Amino acid sequence: xxxxxxxxxxxxxxxxxxxxxxxxxxxxxxxxxxxxxxxxxxxxxxxxxxxxxxxxxxxxxxxxxxxxxxxxxxxxxxxxxxxxxxxxxxxxxxxxxxxxxxxxxxxxxxxxxxxxxxxxxxxxxxxxxxxxxxxxxxxxxxxxxxxxxxxxxxxxxxxxxxxxxxxxxxxxxxxxxxxxxxxxxxxxxxxxxxxxxxxxxxxxxxxxxxxxxxxxxxxxxxxxxxxxxxxxxxxxxxxxxxxxx
Length: 245
Hints:
245 residues, 22% strand, alpha/beta, 8-stranded mixed beta sheet, 8 strands
């Protein structure tokens, strides 16, 4: 099943909601960044944001992920783009990064900090940031109060740590960061490079594996997740939070 899971997500432009425009918008909130900064891209996936960040800031971006085929795609693109010196892939566990304290000017985490948990991630990765360093992170967040019961049950099962914007801002401050800015990713950031390609991939795989019950049982919850967003996107979304240590 793990092989099937990665077969699905390796084919997608992104492994979670996001867009080039949102990455750039977040990057523009960072001020007085050193020349040639050292940057960590946590849970980089196939690296669309890795190259946006490298292009925007220059310096060196360490792209960390535990799935080697994702990193192979990044290395190939870096080679084709002449960016081998700017993008370095690290095959490793984002819950146990192989780095020294205060190494990075910027940590970037689009759609990945939930693996550690928002608060735990902010605390655990803080030592790797230099004084005054930035942490740019996206987190699924409640946008409205009193969500419908079936939506609450969905998130209680999928990610019980989901919170409101104000609750997350309080966590940010309690973890010793200054909130530089935040904004909601548009719905197009869910659909264009993520959910629409995911729906197409699932439809193809459901035909290919129509006799494989285990595979179908993996695919159906992904379709349910997409349907939940289609019904209830006004109640939750991804927020880009830009913080400074």
